[in-house]
Amino acid sequence: MSARRLAVLVCGGFVITSCWLFASLDDATGDAGDVAVGETSDAQSSDFADPSRWASYDVSFIDTNPHSYAAFDGRYVYFLPGTSLLAYDTQKVFDQQAAWSVQLVDGGGYSAVVTGASLELLSKTTSRAIATNGQLDAQAWSQLTLSDAGAPQVTFSGATFDGRYVYSFGDGDGGVYLSRRDTTVSFTDPSGWCFTLAFPGLDHHGGTTFDGRFVYGMADLDGGGAVGIRYDVEGGIDAASSYESFKLTNQITAQNLKSQLGATFDGQYVYFTPDVASSSWNCLVRFDTDAGAFDVNGNWAAHVLSLTKTSGYQTAGPVFDGRYLYLVEQAGSRIMRYDTLAIFDAESAYEIVDVLTVTGSDAGKNVKLWGGAFDGQYVYFATASDSNAHRVFRFKAFDAPGPMPAAYHGSFH
């Protein structure tokens, strides 16, 4: 058995993340097995800044479009579209052209989730939904205009999967809406889709994740201020008692909290990452799911990232590898890593690298990272909005591939 990871024993299937994904199936190397919460790998590197563990590959030979976030389905790492879906085959060599493929996609700005073998995409700009059906060829994909399924005018951002239903929060007229898709029904069958106004008067900012019972997100009050939101999947989707919210502003820190973007779950804590590079709002926020009540101040904590390694750190979604949480700088070249086994507010728990420095590539280039994904051994980082650099970066988190954790939850904007 290969090295084992801290895991989240929740439900079967896949979920993508803001990006992190746990899968309850054989990984791409053929090694499999469930992993218990709290188990970690002796082979995992403790040196985040070790250049030998980093690599980058110029994909401009096939794709010069920007990408936002990434996903892993057990074999392929997908870099999500602005206008193209870039895929890397993890069974092939990273820096060989034969490992890469691309498909043009209309719509732009997609959130995604993996359900079984299919990558499902929700456009933030065209109310369009796509299921790849496990195929790289776009001709084999299923597509649906959400209005045909009864959707109001909603901008969805982030998605997660509970083993049967796909959930996404989004902004619409009057507040935050919840979308639920039943994966036992055909993707293009409108009867499999449900939309409801979940949190009137709030604006959804981004991020959706699942802890085995609740679907979490982060909203904003009109005029600013972060509000944690969650939906109980064991309750009725139209039942008011299924929904909870908690205003975070000035509740858990002296700092004003607002504009938390990405969300992910590590087996105990749900994390929300900052979308504002301000010393006043630059907080990593977490909720202790073991503590119980959602609306109790003591069950929440916030750590001001500007007090650790940088004066301001605006993120584009977290990536989780089973132990470490990677906070990817939004439209920048830095990545901060937090050790979830360390004390949350200890400066030693956080370290930061610049991918240009650590890979020794593209000096002077305008590299802008935007999210990433984990495949069981490597963490991949997507590149967005580049004018003169089109690279994928990856970090070798483990010396050898091992089993993925039993469930994978996470989300991104």
Structure description:
This protein has one helix spanning 355-359; strands spanning 14-15, 22-23, 54-58, 67-72, 76-81, 84-89, 100-104, 110-115, 118-123, 128-131, 142-145, 154-156, 160-161, 165-172, 175-182, 193-200, 203-210, 214-220, 226-232, 243-247, 260-265, 269-274, 283-288, 300-304, 315-320, 324-329, 334-339, 350-354, 369-374, 378-383, 391-396, 410-411. The chain has 413 residues and is mainly beta. It has a single domain (14-411), classed as Methylamine Dehydrogenase, Chain H, CATH 2.130.10. A hairpin with a 3-residue loop joins strand 4 (67-72) and strand 5.
Can you describe this structure in just a few lines?
This protein is mostly beta strands and 413 residues long. The chain is 1% helix and 42% strand. The protein has a single domain (14-411), classed as YVTN repeat-like/Quinoprotein amine dehydrogenase (Methylamine Dehydrogenase, Chain H).
Assign the CATH architecture: 7 Propeller
Structural class: mainly beta
Largest sheet: 5 strands, antiparallel
How would you sum up the global shape?
globular
User: What would CATH call the class?
Assistant: Mainly Beta
Number of helices: 1
What is the H level of CATH, i.e. the homologous superfamily? YVTN repeat-like/Quinoprotein amine dehydrogenase
The tally of structural domains comes to: 1
